[in-house]
From TrEMBL:
Active-site residues, record numbering mapped to chain: D228 (proton donor)
Source organism: Natronocella acetinitrilica
Keywords carried by this UniProt record: Amino-acid biosynthesis, Isomerase, Methionine biosynthesis
InterPro entries: IF-2B-related, IF-M1Pi, IF_2B-like_C, Initiation_fac_2B_a/b/d, M1Pi_N, NagB/RpiA_transferase-like
Protein's UniProt name: Methylthioribose-1-phosphate isomerase
Amino acid sequence: MPDHDSIRPFRWAGDSLILLDQRRLPEEVSEICCTSAAKVAEAIAQMVVRGAPAIGIAGAYGAALAWREAGGDSGQRERLLAQLRAARPTAVNLAWALDRIAALGDVDAGRVEAEANAIAEEDLAANQRMGELGAAYIDAGSGVLTHCNTGSLATGGYGTALGVIRSAWSGGLVARVYADETRPWMQGSRLTAWELLRDGIPVTLLADSAAPLLMRDGAISWVIVGADRITANGDVANKIGTYGLAIAARHHGVRFMVVAPSSTVDMALACGDEIPVEHRDPEELLAIGGKRLAAQGADAWNPVFDVTPAELVDVLVTERGVVEKPSTATMAKLFGGQP
Ligand code: MRU
């Protein structure tokens, strides 16, 4: 295991999927046990497990459970797979993993389980590779800023953007890691800070809205983020707030790196306008930790992802290689048609 990588968000127990309950971190380290595909779909929708690659992996294990539950009933199996697919709409990794399982055809549950294991292992290897590729862009003494959680918790291990930060940290290149709190689910303060500190990497949190000032003060040279879906022209869907960070970074001459495995690339969509953006319950904004803060009667608009146009991305790191200044032409060189 490379340095600074001690956490896994899931465990396959042979007949069930055990998930670290990310809603309760860092206060409580607890797990939930999913013994059915429906329970996995519910866990994905309710954010027990989250992060694009991690929900793809959980979906694949959910499919293994669907195979067991349905036996030879292909209609029942299809219904369970459709339920898993619908659990969250923006991260394409979920549909990608389920398509990969469906492509196996009429196999037994053991074969589906082996494919889910392979998806998880390949994701970890992709992250380690992206860590090396991305860290090569970081100059010694850099301050870096990340958004949301893209670490071991969000993936098969090591992380995407956080994997690059881990590799750059291990190489002695990072002077300081800054992490946005990431309203409203606080993935930055709850999850990124927890996993970095557990792995011995110091982190400084800031309110999401403080990031432009941090850039103006010259404290960072890179913003490094993950992605939930990247379209054929290089547009990037990621956690709400990413678009604003990219605009501020360009204004201040700070470079902007996106790190994502090829399972996040959706060459079937021409541009970001075609990405389904998930909107969640307004209550997630109106209350914090179950305590209502907003004035009674206030409504809330709660898109949980946004789309950063390709022209604001300096470097896209994938395990297949790096795309500098992503565009339809540079993306096609690496991904051709469908990844
Ligand atoms: O709503 P979440 O927590 O699932 O959103 C996660 C993100 O937006 C991550 O940045 C993205 O999935 C990349 S994770 C390697």
